[in-house]
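User: Modeling request: complex.
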Amino acid sequence: MSRKPYLRKMPKSWWLAQRRYTSYMAREMSCVFIGAYSVLIVLGLYRLSQGRAEYGAFLDALQSPPSLVFHAAALVFALIHTVSWFSLAPKAMPLQIGEKKLSGGPVVLAHYAVWVVVSAGVLLVARI
Amino acid sequence: MTEPTLQVEILRYRPETDQDPAFQTYTVPYRDDWVVLDALNHIKDNIDRTLSYRWSCHMAVCGSCGMMINGEPKLSCHAFLRDYYPNKIRVEPLNNFPIERDLVTVTDDFMEKLESVKPYVIPKQERAVDEGPHLQTPAQLNTFKQYTMCINCLLCYAACPQYGLTPDFVGPAALALAHRYNLDTRDAGREQRQEIAASNEGVWDCTFVGECSQVCPKSVDPAAAIQQTKIASTIDWYKALLNPWGKR
Ligand code: SF4
Ligand code: FES
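Assistant: Request completed. Predicted assembly structure:
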């Protein structure tokens, strides 16, 4: 008997078919906001190098409504980025002591701990 | 008293007559200890002998009964009707594989990929029988034991959008098995496997959707194996960069 295998096409909206796919896409999208925010910070540094007045104008521009909307969105996506990647970290770093495999909890906690320490460090430097 | 029933909607494809697959609905008796596979067997035995599907063990061991059940890849011998009742159950062949007939898919692509990663112990030196067995401690065994649990059911491939979008991707189960043998202290075949595993179509086509590990009925966690292979391959790359004369 002749064969005629049928291949179904993956729909373009596959990432809406399931909640877990959608949150994966949100994690992927988060890098756009993280990237855009890095560009914004570099821009701020550049304006600072130009002088006090230019930096002042940059700070004023940050208060505009579109900028506030962007900041709110960037914050949400930065949180999605951080929380989702931290929760995946144990997969890349398995812990085993002797015969026993450990749960991923400590790896995730360590990530948050480093995050807090680094953030505190940055704040400290910013105050000096 | 009338017996409770349940509707099962099955994607059918008969290559000799059908242009495209289409759904057909059957009504089966509802029993709370029945799994979807029991419903399919009931249909085949009592309603429609032309229905085709694969199964063998009825106990989540053989890995042949994987199907999309209400859109999720599952072993049909492990999906209880009571988790869906009284709603209709929709059964389709596994996503991302060509349909041979009804719920039977063509899995040749996976078989070739599995073979390509040499999923067997490649010892450094053949050992004569009178030299005795290769010894391994329980701690050494536990580094890879979870990966030995794979039953090749292909639920992970059906769940993986990367495999659907990039059919050349070696995919979760094959890469998890490559990792399993790489971690085995009796094995010395990592370099041979890396040709495939560390290539673009190997671990680097994976974008860590993570769905393979969610659907795996054996808790193999292929996503973990792939990320660990990425890290090990990156370390290899840096080592080669820093010490181009060293043995890779
Ligand atoms: S890794 Fe899990 S889901 Fe994938 S084939 Fe093996 S047992 Fe099935
Ligand atoms: S029939 Fe063997 S795994 Fe389901």
